[in-house]
Structure formats: C-alpha cells, structure tokens
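G., before I forget:
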Amino acid sequence: MSDEPTMNIAVTHRFTASAERVFDAWLDPVKAGKWLFSTPTGTMVKVEIDARLGGKFLVIDRRDGVDVDHVGEYVEIDRPRRLVFKFIVPKYTDLWTTVAIDIVALDGGCELTLTHEGVLTEYTDRTKDGWTMMLDGLDEALG
Amino acid sequence: MTPQASLDDTLIALADPTRRAILQRVAVGESRVTDLAEPFAISLNAVSKHIRILERSGLVRRRRSGREHLLSLNTQPFDEAMAWMETQRAFWKRNLMALDELLQAEDVIGER
C-alpha cells in the first residue's frame, strides 16, 4: 500500500516532421507560443523560455480575460530524444508534476510520447472547478 | 461528504488489494460489516480500518439499520478520477495536434 498515490497519463502522437523539428518546437519561444498550452479560444500573451538545464519557462494563455500561467523548469534536455520538465499551473494547483517527452525518429517523421506523472495527485478540490471550466471551454470549442 | 472527497483519497483507497476485494463484494449489493470481514484472513479490526479508508474516499457509504452497519458502493469518486484523467489526456492530445498542424503549415510555406 502506498500513501502517495500517483497516476500517469501517456499520450502518443506520430509526426511527419523530423524529431529535431518536433523537439525544437518545445523550446523555441516563437514556435512554442503558437501551440504549447494554447487553447482554441485563448490568446497567448507571454512566452519566456530559458532552454537549459535548470532553466525556467513561463507561458501565459489568456482565457476569457483571465491569464493562466504555465510555469516549468527543465530537468533533462537531450535533443532530439528526450525533454523532461517540472510543471505547475499555480492558478489551479500548488503541486508540481513532471512531464516527460520522448521522441523516436522514424522513417518519414517521428513518434512522440508524452508522459505526465502524478496527474491525479495534483488534483484537489480547489483545482477542480478551474480545470473543469477550462476543459469545458475546450470541449465546446472543439465542438 | 462524497463530492468533497479528494482524488488522493480515492487512489489511496484503490491502492490496496484487500480494499479492492471489499469493493467488489459491496458492488454486488449492500453488505453487513461482519459479513464483509468473513472471507478475509485478517481481524475484524483490520477490516474496519480498510472500510474507514474506503468511506473517507466516498467509495463506500455506511448506514445503520438497528444494530447493523450496512455498507454500499458509491462509484462517483471513481468516475470523477477517470473523468479527470480523460480531460488531461484530451488537453495534451489537443496540444500535440496543434503542434502537428503548425509544423505541417511550415512545410507548405517552405514548399512554395
């Protein structure tokens, strides 16, 4: 029995772009600002990325007039294979989680696997409403 | 109580094989605490501790009928845990799709 339950989610996506291009899109502020932590109805208002070990990032997406900060710190940068960062959205939680990106080069592209560790432990009653609201908005936007 | 129970409590409750076995029995129908304890090779006291953890998570509800304590299953915390996982997964999937679209758009511009 564990007193500190964790549960991870993993998402895999196949890209036609090379592993290098996919990897760099996480760390290039101009590119990251076009997709990372973006929501269809939100507006990206700030993207700061210090792409080195121990470096921080700050991505702010404005959703319905509310700024949502996404804060992280890089703990592993192994271009173009692996990127790991600690991650927190202070508006919704005060617990850090870890996101690991693994990229495998394939013929004609690459496959990326994202593993978000400790997803459920970040969930608290306080966070629930915020996330639910945001994700409801996301669902609506996706129709 | 149930809607306020945190997902941590749900996960802690589900993390133990004895508690999962208790949940399976309760899922069949309302059960007396003493009946629940019977198949397990542990003391009634130990079973009671497990049941308290299950109650704290909201997965198990207790009511009194005379001298009997009756336990029943409430799946809501479990459903909420699963829903949370699903919304998180959807969030990342949407982000990776957006990245894919961005890179493909770059390719189109590059080929012009």
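The first helix of chain A runs from residue 19 to 27. The mean pLDDT of chain A is 83.

More on Monday.
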